[in-house]
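ugh ok fine here u go
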Amino acid sequence: MTNDWDKVFPRSANVDHQKISFKNRYGITLAGDLYLPKNRANGRLAALAVGGPFGAVKEQSSGLYAQTMAERGFVTLAFDPSYTGESGGAPRNVASPDINTEDFMAAIDSLGLHDAVDRERIGVIGICGWGGMALSAAAVDKRVKAVVASTMYDMTRVMSKGYNDSMTLEQRTQTLEQLSRQRWTDAERGTPNYQPRYNVERKGEPFMIDYHDYYMTPRGYHPRAVNSGNAWTITTPLPFNNLPILTCISEISPRPVLFVHGEKAHSLYFAQTAYAAAAEPKELMIIAGASHTDLYDKMDVIPFDRLQSFFNQHLAA
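structure:
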């Protein structure tokens, strides 16, 4: 891990920052950025584990959320998922709905062992594809007391059904046939093949242009991010096709869930469906005029005041 400040956002003078590492249940070492309020009292504080977006690193959106919430009085931990960024695991740039859900729970393990944290007051924030992972983790990990899913994707839904559930059974079958046979190619080579580089061109659907304008410009580019001109392995989608992560979302209740999404986001239907499936208490906060990536880093769009009041209420001492 580098000790340089290589984030895409400026360092706050009101927060203490340190690099940490911790292991998940599979023995993979995860790298994280721990943020603590500089003017914290001696007592233990509420804490937040922060992850996402899918294909991003902790030096991007999750770190911005974490540092900002630390300025507002929380101990926060932004981390790189297994096989990505500064975290361990080989081969590189592969994802798993199971292991990535576990990564969130491992971050909660780490926070709960820190002497500045009240382990009975831990929440999670998941951004984009990690909004779904946060909900998946909270459904099974009862240590989580409150959840925010910001501009969320359900990665298992989009990979198995396509955008807006447009994939036909024939298309799905053909894709799985190709991915299955790719395993023989990878096994024969001894290393995985990778998809085309992500977001290198500014073309396609408007949301793809938005992704390019975040991940491939000084606004959000980071060389370790999968989405910044790197790529996932070709076979990464395989387990996402039959391991839906939101099956048990109603079991988060009676712990609260806050969905935050942009009115103009192409991904809004993910949050609307998840909100409908979740049990009370729940809230869907739609930000007028906001796109999907506006909630990655735009400080005048992300409703940090609402996030603070939500966690203050539900992580109260």
